[in-house]
Design a protein that fits this description.
Elements (H helix, E strand, L loop, with lengths): L2 E6 L18 H14 L4 E6 L3 H14 L4 E2 L18 H11 L11 H18 L5 E6 L1 H12 L16 E6 L4 E8 L7
Parallel strand pairs: 1-4, 2-3, 2-4
Antiparallel strand pairs: 1-5, 5-6
Length: 196
């Protein structure tokens, strides 16, 4: 049974003076991705994808290089569009995120609506699985909100009611059956590995 392994990028360099989409993984995030690739070594990973954002491509590059693969990027795997506000420092940022998930049919401060982001993401992952001609596991490195919106679709619940990644630094993953597009493993931190 081939799977899609959807990973949220781990810790990044937060630089308010740099465009958010250009933030790289920080040393902790880089090390966590390296450890996760050790867990992937026993699986038959045949393709790797990422959003076009630097933090996701950094993670995909680590996976692809260690497994002797290339990776492709897809803009529609990107985080919800927050360009209307740019960087918002915590704790205010987390208040806005709560509004984003709590009012999915509204644009919060000009952000892409959660319902629109979910449609884009589900369509992107579905298309990726349709077009990928490999037969093994597919790895997608993307973002936390993307993963939550995808999970809500897979769990068939309202946006905001889905299970969530619990690690504060990101770096969590779910496993999806490629053929049936159903969730086979709920969120786990990348250190926790795959369930039985």
């Amino acid at each position: 049974m081939a799977s899609l392994i959807f990973i949220t990028h781990p810790e990044v360099v937060i630089d308010p003076n740099q465009t958010i989409t250009e933030w790289p993984l920080n040393p902790v995030g880089h090390a966590r991705m390296e450890r996760f690739v050790d867990l992937l070594a026993d699986r038959n990973v045949t393709s790797v994808y990422a959003s076009t954002e630097r933090k996701a491509t950094d993670g995909a590059a680590i996976v692809a290089e260690r497994l002797g693969l290339s990776y492709a990027t897809h803009e529609d795997l990107g985080e919800n569009d927050r360009s209307s506000t740019g960087f918002i420092a915590p704790p205010e940022f987390w208040d806005v995120v709560r509004e984003f998930f709590g009012r999915p049919h509204e644009s919060i401060r000009g952000w892409e609506r959660a319902i629109d982001a979910q449609t884009r993401i589900v369509n992107a992952v579905s298309r990726l699985l349709r077009e990928d001609q490999t037969s093994g596991d597919t790895v997608v490195v993307s973002h936390g909100a993307v993963g939550c919106l995808l999970t809500a679709h897979l769990q068939q619940v309202e946006i905001g009611q889905e299970s969530r990644p619990q690690h504060p630094g990101g770096g969590c993953f779910i496993v999806i059956d490629r053929e049936t597009f159903t969730l086979t493993q709920d969120w786990r931190a990348i250190e926790d590995g795959f369930g039985d």
